[in-house]
Amino acid sequence: MILACGATPAFAQDQATPAKQAEAEPQGAARAPQAAAPAETPNAADIVVTGSRIVRSGYTAPTPTTVIGAEQIQSAAPASLADYVNELPALVGSTTPRVATTGASATVGANLYNLRALGANRTLVLLDGHRVAPSTLTGNIDAGLLPQALVERVDVVTGGASAAWGSDAVAGVVNYVLNKNFTGVMGNIQSGISGQGDVRTFKAELSAGAKFADGRGHILVSGEYHDDAAGDAVTSRDWFKSYKVVNNPAFVAGNGQPRMLLQSGVGLGVATDGGLITSTTTAGGVTASSGALVNTQFNGSGTPGPFRPGYKSGVLSFGGDAQDVSQIIRLASPVKGGTIYARASYDLTDTITAYGEFGYANVKSKIFARVYERDGNIAIKADNAYLDSSIKATMAANNLASFTLGKIFLDWGPSVGRNDREQFRYVGGLEGKFGAGWTWDIYGQHGETKFLNGDYSNNPITANFNNAVDAVVNPATNQIVCRSTLTNPTNGCVPYNVFGTSKSTPAALAYIYGTSLQNITIKQDVVSGSLHGEPFSSWAGPVSIALGGEWRRESYAATTTALDQTNAFFLGNFRPSNGNYNVKEGFFETVVPLLKDQPFFHAVDFNGAIRYTDYSLSGSVVSWKLGLTWDVDDQLRFRGTRSRDIRAPNLAELFQAGNNLNQTISDPVLNKSYSVQQYAAGNPNLVPEKADTTALGVVYRPHWFPGFAASVDYFNIKIDRAIYSNTAQAVINLCQGGNQQQCSFITRNAANQITFIQLLPLNIGGEGTKGVDFEASYRRSLSDIVRNWGGSLNLRMVGTYVAHRTVTIGGVTTEYAGQNANFDQNSQAVPSWRWLASATYDSNHVTATLTERFIGAGKINNAWVQGVDIDNNHVPAVFYTDLTLGFKIPEFGKGAQVYFAVQNLFDRDPPVAPIYGATGFLSTGTNAYLYDVIGRQFRAGVRFKL
Fold first, then answer.
1. What is the pLDDT confidence band of residue 23, given thresholds at 50, 70 and 90?
2. Is 577 in contact with 657 (CB distance < 8 Å)?
3. What is the mean pLDDT of residues 53-64?
4. What are phi and psi of 160, to 5 degrees?
5. What residue ranges define each of the domains in the chain, with the CATH number in brackets?
6. pLDDT score for 114
7. Has residue 3 got a pLDDT over 60?
8. Contact partners, residue 198, CB within 8 Å, separation at least 6
9. Around Cβ 384, how many Cβ atoms within 10 Å?
10. Mean predicted confidence (pLDDT) in 441-454
11. Where are the beta strands (DSSP E) in 564-653?
């Protein structure tokens, strides 16, 4: 992705707009209030950059903030604004429509920001400093539901900001700031496609604003539409080689061989598309996984033949005839939708303005989930009507009463579901000023998200499937029927031939398939007010304060089908649920100048903030921030903050009734892998997480090198009482390690086989991250060099080094920094180094940006030793090169431009970095949360402004 990001250390901006200022300054502390208007209107109102609520010209808050201006976004020509923001090195593991997974998840197709790899639910997303209704029950905000055409800048606060903005701002804040004063008309049309002819993108944007009533009023309307097509299956790319982590068949303790291998050509060893016999049972009840018929497979026509198992590793196999079920994974989920934003304001008096806002978004995405798969657990009896005669003869000769069949239903195709979101937002408020520089505002807001999740195609009702495959010959009619029909003639069962492929009949599938879905309505109501001013001055200047209060209510209700509630389906099995909580908050922030215009102390400011929060369910909590900025002179600034930040449990963690999913696990007690049901549910006894954040930084803008600026910021975030819901495999592993609380979530049958695992969120975790952000930039005019065209050159590098990213559960601490593959969750891959460098040339005629993106080398698992635990634990570094060109057409209006962009110019393939946890059998072999799985992409468009 091309990113010529504008980041700023927050200096007063008296001569430039926020976007222009962003171009010239390095990443830094939150840029405090700056004049938004150009020099000819010096009395224009100050603006607030998200790191602080203090409104004060020239003030620089100590909290690091990256500011991306509209001009930088336009020069990059991204397919979506979220694609652009996600290239910031501080964002790691964000969910996007291009993560190439088969997850049947409520987040498929969404854009969920993930700062510091601490999880999307610890990144607060705001619209003009206001909360918006959550897009999911986990409290996440889908950036695709936010208006984009009017975005003036995006503020990314890369540190704890709970004292300023409340819960969820543990990792930071992403704030979309709109140009609410826009007048005129502007538009943009863009289309794109990959070099392979898939992942087509299209978007159209149009905005118009005008004043009325002699300038006392202003009205603004903006809309956008986008249609992004699906990616092809991963088999369309030559980098797909079915890489997975498997056990080494040659390993014996002490023989010098590694325990595991990073192996290509890996698939399932317990199922094939035509069917695979995995075990047999005699008439006397003796079950065997070897002997007659075991490892017999059926070809497409249903004819039996030998299956070469190769080397087996749990449910996986390689070096034989294994088929990779991950071959059906799509490279991108299709997403279609649009937004409408409208705003009207009117000056009731010279000091009081009333305003109202309306927002609407409708986004629909498809879920390409797993194909139906049965890992050697389809029971086939000797009298099955569709059995090949040779199989029947062998069963009779060996006194076999039944066998188990494993089958991948590739001929059915993947289950295709949908995530449809419709969001409404209504805001009304008053703002004004009085006295000597005092300002106030009060507003009310109602937001509502209607969300349909599920509605999967090819989703069997398990009981119906089992009935349909148990086909026999009715002795009375000599017709093939379901065995269940013999005793229940009106049950509607239609027999199904499970041997081979493409044997389905419409009638059989109509009986087997069902519809699993849930409808969720999430509501958010907010009433908020604040006051800003400078009550008095100290010896070093005016003391500024901001104070206010907020009341917020979050609620939801989820409905499902009757069959969902009986765990009837392969996918879905949702539960009806509802819940609500409310929160009351009060906050106070101040800036106190301590020194001014002294030797070595050009300016020293103290920034303090405190917020008291009272949750209706989990009680009260206090968040705070202490910060200091020290300008040695007008070239060198030091800054630092210490803060207590919080995250309250979200609606899903508190109330969700849960849903059942079939999950493949590895059972260390029985030493085998098999599928179990897992059930995830909420826990109303949760309490808020608490985090301690430390940030220290320096900004340097030397006189001796005009146009150059650099900043370095150290960050350290430690989370206590982290809310954590283990995966099914993690519950098993912790239980095996002696954690009796986790053992209580596991149910085993008389044969000691796991039949059920409950996943319950608990305040049992500790998480942390530590590292350094850095940026350097250089900007200069080229008028003296390129005489005819002139213009300017802007060079920039932005990067993040992560020294530690740890998770502690049950007393066990795991280090993820420097690990570039995921175990089960996308936040478990945290490269040590990420940076991007860009060079932009801009003139009155043309603009061009060349960007280099870098993801450092790492390991598949930090705990593994290469040569001991695995043969290859290395993930190589990756460079991606992007190019954009824009040709300005002033004859068609200010800002008119035709532009072209090429992403991943050299078509760099992603490195091998497979998922290796419980879902490892579904891994594409790389990590699409980090790497580009699509390849070279082209985009072109035209924009104008009148």
1. very low
2. yes
3. 76
4. -60, 135
5. 18-234+333-368+418-455+518-649+686-725+760-945 (2.40.170.20), 236-332+369-401+456-517 (no CATH)
6. 95
7. no
8. 229, 230, 231, 232, 236, 331, 332, 934
9. 26
10. 96
11. 577-598, 601-615, 619-631, 636-647
